[in-house]
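Would you mind writing out the residues of a protein together with its fold in token form for me to study?
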Amino acid sequence: MKAAILENVGAPLRISNATLPELGGKEVLVKLAYAAINHRDIYISKGLYAGIQTPCILGSDGAGIIEEVGGALNEDWIGKEVIINPNINWGENENFKANTYQILGMPTNGTFAEYVKVNIDRVHLKPEHLSLKAASALPLAGLTAYRALFTKGNLIANQKVLINGVGGGVAQFAFQFALAAEVEVYVTSGNAEKLKKAIEMGAKDGISYKTESWAKDLAKSSGGIDLAIDSAGGKGFADLLKVMNPGGTIVTYGGTRGKVDGLSPQILFWKQLNILGSTMGSDTDFKQMLAFVNEKQIEPTVSKVFPLNEVNEAFDYIEQEVQFGKVLLEIN
């Protein structure tokens, strides 16, 4: 089978032939139609991730058709259109992942290939209203966004929600999920076109975080934020405290801008704020996310589709930070 293989950290992915996986009794072979790229894939390729093992087929997200099943499974699964839950061994505690937790796509071979094998409990029927193309964008980013908003952020009616850095995969899903929950949604971005698109989609207002007065402007525009979802950290994170209403919550799932400087403990305790960390999500979160997507008929936003053999160009495109939504690879 054709696959995009990371052979060495720091080197481009190489399109090559890989051995077709052999199935265990409860495993299925999925012929992939599309896969989605996440920043995780780029970080691994650059060596900015723990426990990297090469060679490996990257890719955590995918949608396709089950072509073969292991001997312990019912053959009725063959031909089903499915999406893949990228969690491996979350564990029994819903509050945090187990020490044995992994994500599909390193060290276990992932979805940047014509075929991927996974355990039967990792596949779910594709939402009927979605194409395989749209469904492939959903798993990792949708799961991360859902847990940040609902499981950790405890989003409820009549709240004002801020999605910081709208446009990227997880932030885009958090934005769409918050809109679907019918709350008042505000966004920030450093890109004027992304702000314009977000407002066209239903954001109450959009502010550029590149302006020095962004926190003051947002506080005035919104009247205060109850729940903020952030993936950047670094410079600007401390300013989030200034726009939060008393008792508000900030959920962070990333740190692309690095460590946080200048955070005021006085604002934190005086406003009785909560700062929570969130990573991926449990299998329960995944099932609830799918149910939410089905109920609200949510259509993932796709920014651009590249053929599998242009995976390195797709990585470059993402690093330009111009995408609004997910970037996909067309496999078959």
About this structure: The domain at 2-138+300-330 is CATH 3.90.180.10 (Quinone Oxidoreductase; Chain A, domain 1). The mean pLDDT is 96. Residues 187 and 287 are 27 Å apart (CA to CA).
